[in-house]
Amino acid sequence: GDWTDEYPPLPTYQPDPEAEKKELYIMQVKGLPWSCSAQELLQFFSECRIRDGVKGIHLTVDRMGRPSGQAFIEMEHEEDVGKALEKHRQYLGPRYVEVYEVTNTDAEALLKKAGQDPAESDVVRLRGLPFSCTDQDIVMFFSGLDIVENGITVVLDRKARHSGEAFVQFSSHEAAAEALQRHREVIGNRYIEVFPSRRDQIHSSWKKKPSSAPPFVGLPSANRTASASQNRTGSAHGSALHYIHMRGLPFQVSGEDVVKFFAPLAVSKILMECGAEGRPSGEADVYFSCHKDALTAMSRDRMYIGERYIELFLNSDAESDGSW
Prior knowledge:
Helix content is 23%, strand content 28%. By secondary structure, the protein is an alpha+beta fold. Strand 8 (147-156) and strand 9 (162-170) form a beta hairpin.
């Protein structure tokens, strides 16, 4: 059917010929920071009237459920399109964004697709949770939002320990959209990352991961010290707790580039993430030997490697220094 089917029919007493042929005004926005929220886009386009406010903004995600840096925004009217186009190549945070008008036929296809868009999903994925985190902590983190019964799935690593990731299913798309706004808020002293996800992506262990492990980037002497400290603490945590997640790396980045980025701090291990095709995803985890180094390393947040600014997320607890 026609996309207007979802709307209730207009009351008969006010025949409105305009309602028949509704023009669609849709903008495509590219080059957004990964952490960009619908709320920030609403402010960025504050001179434009956006249909249904935040609901008229569709942030798209890639196949892995990660933000793609693009959005489609429904505008009320042609003059709003003009105002939106004036924002082309203006800066939103540290990046300039590109703004294009979408033709009517593409717009209809996009709106249909937006219906099945993971952005319309009621599931989010959390990353960077403290190992001691309980379901109750997650409920508190999303206080005010309605989580369905048994809607929290904590992902365990291969040794059946808390992996620091979890999926949360909410009772509505709206609650999930609101949950995404809490990206980078804190539990304990750790940033929690909140990503869009879907029900079919929920899993409770890492066994299903297609690639066995991300490639280690050779830093042999440092790797030895990392394993030594693990033996000493009698637990596989140890240095594993002091890492920084990097996002936005150029694809051709090398381990050496990452070491230089954090110099003179000593990096003990680098895990580069790969996407489904084995290509680098632009993300990496960088391990340090102690909380203090990881904290110091955070001062490099939003500095550049080549043309790209790098976002850093802290995953380290002061308590986990020394022995467990």
